[in-house]
Amino acid sequence: MEGLKHQAIGVLNGNWKDEVGFSIPCANLYPFQWFWDSGLIAIGFAHFDMEKAEREIKTLLDTQWGNGFIPHIIFHTESDTYFPGPDFHRSDLHPESSKKYRSTGMTQPPVTGFVLEEIYRIAKDKSAALNFIESVIDKVYFNHQYFYENRDPQNEGLVYIYHNWESGTDNSPIWDDIWDTMNPPEYTFERRDTTHVDASERPSKREYDHYLHIIDIAKDHNYSDEKIAELSPFLVQDPLFNAMLIKSNESLMKLYVLLGHDEAKIQQLKKWQEKAVMSFNKKLFDNELGAYVHYDLRNERPLRFLSSSSFAPLYAGIPNPDRAASMVKIMLEKFGAEHQYLCASFDPDSERFNPKKYWRGPVWVNLNWMLYNGLKAYNYNEVAERVKKDTISIIENNGFYEYFDSRKEMHKNGNAGYGGNNFSWSAALLIDLLER
Ligand code: DGY
């Protein structure tokens, strides 16, 4: 395993941009800084280069807007290998956007809180790690405050996302039901992603029309949260996104206690957390499916599909032991057949399942890492070990790809890795898994 770890370190160092202090997810396909990538990448760096881990997070938090918002892509450099770039997104339209960085006007799963806790866990020099955490933690808190004050119109403790790119699971089949409610114009644009990666592994042109149209609606209102809540055709309470926020709340509380101050913030976090966990369990658990599902806030209906996001709440300690047991049973029955690697990103029994296409079926290392940790926390050690073993095997067989075919039979020739190669979070989280 030392060889594999060594390769992973090479991938991370290769994607590091020292002049600015951040990592690209991978060359060409993703040439900027992405919010949740950055957080997960820092976990990998923390194992062998704490300075880079800290700089990664510092740069990310430096891009925070005046209202606490942190964008999903920060365009640190010029690049013509990616569409849509800064001139399409126009973050400057928002009155409180960063004057220093050009970015998108949408966000991504809020991983930063639990990433700080991971950095503390991994650090050999705990007091240096705490000093670092002390210097950034209030920004993460401010980000959570932004979410609860601006993204929860019905005051439920659950925040919405207004774009599929905010979910991180960009083209999940779950969104198909929302695309059915829309009829966006046909945009003329030049895709860049499909010049780097086979089109069969990426979203379709028509899907991109929807993606761009939602951004145009938000831009028409200068990215006002209020207007977005009122008008965006995409408004979803996502179990993965909310689980990340809840997990990060928990981490912030623990870290503030360690730092020995900010009782008021700890109390506020507790309040957010109690409400969030209660609503999450009440609203997002689907008894019939036996796991958590997305809720379409625009059309007031649950989106009743199983995906790897359905199991992510295990990582945040959200289900009680009975629910956790039902989730693990469903995961093994539906996603865990002998011929499948754990864990496909979408229900393998569904006719919408596609094991090659981005978030419509392939296995992703970041979700597997969360599942591994969640299963361990609920004492499902055997299943956790299977997730870990599967993750290591798919990388060993194919390389550090962005996502992987879930069907074992496809892995015989070492070409079942798809999307970008030398992908940062696949390397970062593999390092962390190997260390456990
Ligand atoms: C892409 O361009 O596909 C990115 O994942 C958006 O975040």
Relevant terms:
17 helices; single chain; 6% strand; 436 residues; Glycosyltransferase; mainly alpha; two-stranded antiparallel ribbon; three-stranded antiparallel β-sheet; binds (2R)-2,3-dihydroxypropanoic acid; globular
What value does the average pLDDT take?
Answer: 97
In CATH, the architecture is Alpha/alpha barrel
Helix share bin: 40-55%
SS element count, helices: 17
Task: Count the beta strands.
Answer: 11
Into how many domains do the coordinates divide? 1
- From the 3D structure, determine the CATH topology: Glycosyltransferase
Rounded to an integer, what's the Rg over CA atoms? 20 Å
Any ligands, ions or cofactors bound here, and which?
(2R)-2,3-dihydroxypropanoic acid
**Sheet with most strands:** 3 strands, antiparallel
Distance between the termini: 13 Å
Unreliably modeled segments: none
Write the H/E string, N to C: HEEEHHEHHHHHHHHEHHEEEEHHHEEH
| Main sheet: strand order | 5-8-9
The structure class reads: mainly alpha
Instruction: State which percent range the strand residues make up.
Output: 5-15%
Shape: globular
